[in-house]
Amino acid sequence: MVDLCGVQLRGPVLNGSGTYDPIAARRTFGDELLERFPFDCFVSKTITLAPRQGNPPPRLWETPAGLINSIGLPNKGLEGFLAEDLPKLAELPAPLCVSVMGFDHEELRRLVTEVGAREEVALIELNFSCPNVETGLIMGADPSETASAVSALRPLTTKPLIVKLTPNATDPAAVAKAAEGAGADGLSLINTLKGMALHPRTRQPWLGGTTGGVSGPAVRAVALEQVHSVSRAVRIPTIGMGGIASGRDAADFLSAGATCIAVGTESFRDPTAGARIAAELELVSRKEREFSSGGVR
Ligand SMILES: Cc1cc2nc3c(=O)[nH]c(=O)nc-3n(C[C@H](O)[C@H](O)[C@H](O)COP(=O)(O)O)c2cc1C
């Protein structure tokens, strides 16, 4: 068992928000999905207060060893999520973490209050990779923006609050410390790195949203460093992600200080990646234990 902010998980493998749709997967695989659910805690796609269409297509570009996405957070909005998706996500055989994003403190307050009031929800993840429309600053890129948002939200719910950090910050460890000081219970990192691609013929931006977020093995070394420096800077647990594609990768993030790990882009290549990585991680850990106790030569 793994303790994540007071929530007991079967193991340490989560999904990265927005990279696995269990409602669509259940439509395809039926109840078999529930018997072999690949994650120990499910993190929802980020929801916003109002419904969003997302960015115009194209929304994806493949890079060497990675992906640039410019999805733009399409979602049903808070009401649609609570009425339609939450009852289905509550049937999953794993605790549920709901990811929320607000464009100002009032939106965030409503999201956290209403999501936090639902007993189906075990944890709340605050996706701070967006501008605060009141200040123009990216909430998670600036320590004081982060601290002011977390302190406004902390009294509104008893549910653990996990702050998802953006790697597009000058000093993610300083943001992490500010979040911890303001009452965050955990941190998750990394979100995607800002990137872009040009259309090979027109030389214009390929993605409908002009820029996008880079993920996958291409960002793993950056993610590992950030997980390492953030985990050393705080006492609260961290969830490490960014390009994890094998049990060995997962073991690296745990050794760098993460309490749990999350699988994102790899689930697009292999929808059962979460379960495979958990099994590989078990094997890697067992071999390391045997090696350190002198059992294997
Ligand atoms: C297609 C796609 C959609 C994503 N949507 C979200 C999202 O809604 N909220 C969020 O916090 N992160 C989102 N992410 C970021 C992932 O959760 C994760 O932080 C990032 O991709 C790094 O992990 P990975 O390299 O294993 O994918 C998305 C990533 C991808 C590739």
Q: Residue share in helices?
A: 25-40%
Hetero groups bound? Answer: flavin mononucleotide
Largest sheet: 8 strands, parallel
Order of helices and strands: EEEHHEEEHEHEHEHEEEHEHEHH
Terminal residue distance: 30 Å
Task: Please describe what this structure looks like.
With 297 residues, the chain is α/β, with parallel strands linked by helices. Helix content is 35%, strand content 18%. The protein has 10 helices and 14 strands. It has helices at residues 22-29, 32-35, 77-89, 105-116, 143-153, 172-181, 220-233, 247-255, 266-269, 273-292, and strands at 2-4, 7-9, 13-15, 42-43, 60-63, 66-69, 96-100, 123-127, 161-164, 186-189, 193-195, 212-215, 238-241, 260-263. Strands 3-14-13-10-9-8-7-4 form an 8-stranded parallel β-sheet. Strand 9, helix 6 and strand 10 form a beta-alpha-beta unit. Helix 5 packs parallel to helix 6 (172-181). The two termini are 30 Å apart. The model has no long low-confidence stretch (mean pLDDT 95). The site of flavin mononucleotide has 27 residues, from strand 6.
